[in-house]
Every structure is written in C-alpha cells, then in structure tokens.
C-alpha cells in the first residue's frame, strides 16, 4: 500500500547517482515553506536507493535556503563503502541553486553488534488514545498538520493562551494515514512536533542544521517524542528530540539548530520549518 510520504518523496533516477524529485507543498509549515524533516526525507530516500547497506544510521543536513514546491534534483556521491558502515553525501538543488546538503551513513541492523546498555527508559505517559488531541486545538491550519496526528498527555500552555516558559514537551505522533514508522518516517517526524519555543512566545522557526541518529528498525505506528529546547541565544535555539516506539524502545535521536522568526511571537500557529 502506498502512503502519503512515499508518494511525496518518490524519485526517478536521471543517470549516475542523480535523482529527480517533485517537492510538494503538502508538508508546508507556518513559514509557507516545506518542512525541514520532509526535505531530509526526500534526500534520505534517494540515498537509500544508492546505498550498499539497507538501513540509515545517521543523517546530518544543512539547509542553505527554503525549498519551493516543484521539481528538484538530488546529486549523490559515494564517499566510502565500508564493511559495517558506508557514507554518502547528497545535494538537493532547484533551478541551479543549492537548497540543502546532507551526509548520510548507512549500515545493516541484521549485522550490527550485540552490546546493550540502556539505563534511560522511555517517559511514562498514557497511551495515545488516552491523551488530548492537539491537532484539534491548534487554531490555525496548515498543510503539515494534515500529515500527522498528535496526542499529548497534557495540553501545552501556549494552546490555552498561558505559555509556561518551560521549553519541553511530551507528544505522541502518528502519520495521518497510519503509515507504519520506518527510518524514513522517523527522520521526518523528529522535525514535525509543535514547537516548544511557543512556551516562550515564539512559534515559528527555520531549521539551519539537523542531525538524526537512528537506533533501531522501528516496529510501531505511534511514536512518542520527548522534545526539549535548552538554550535560546541571540535568536537561535537548539531542539533535541528522543523518539520512542509504543513498546518503549528508542527509535531515533535528533538535534537541530534553528533561527526564530522575527515578529512571529504572538500568533498561535504551528510547527517548525
């Protein structure tokens, strides 16, 4: 069965390791530009078609400028093919302008090591069906809100007009069409949560750099995000995300650096770019 994300990141090889994609506005954010996690998924999908290993291990992407709906090209370079880990870099361009650059490492979970040490468990929260539907509470619609379903154990303060000043949240997320989570979707999800900077009055931001580390092959439909911003300095903020499956197992970790949109401090709108 085809799902929304699969259609939105589909690519056609153009020769060598080049791919042609169609960027859609269906993942646009409050900034009216495609979500950074979606752009990352576009690149990751193309790289996985060229990879010697089946699973992504990490992706680190830098955004030079927002993407626009329409055609785009992804050029992939094989940096190194290793026994356990291979590395590629990829550049997404539109009309000759570089939009984003990613470095992707891939491997095979079936051939991974056996050492385990996991003292930090998943947050203890109610199941998604016992949580509040945040999508119904966000007053301003935008395309990305139609791509995901959000459930949270508590309604965040900014949605009730009473920001708490605490830039941390727990929120369940699911693809709106109930697509099972895999690495491609997990990488998009980490950049799709309602922004915790809304709790200090800033709702819109644009991602400058995003790194995602994948920690297992997911087997879940819902994922729990623990989202934290620790430092806002000179208009830039970090955002760390832990993504857990329904069984309480860690799926992915991410960190991004983003810039807050000037003058976007009072309008209750949406999710980060």
TrEMBL record:
Residues 25-106 form the Acyl-CoA thioesterase-like N-terminal HotDog domain. Pfam families: 4HBT_3 (PF13622), 4HBT_3C (PF20789). Transmembrane segments: none annotated. Gene3D superfamilies: Acyl-CoA thioesterase, double hotdog domain. InterPro entries: ACOT8-like_C, Acyl-CoA_hotdog, HotDog_dom_sf, Sec_Metab_Biosynth-Assoc, TesB_ACOT8-like_N. Residues 128-259 form the Acyl-CoA thioesterase-like C-terminal domain. SUPFAM superfamilies: Thioesterase/thiol ester dehydrase-isomerase. This is Thioesterase family protein.
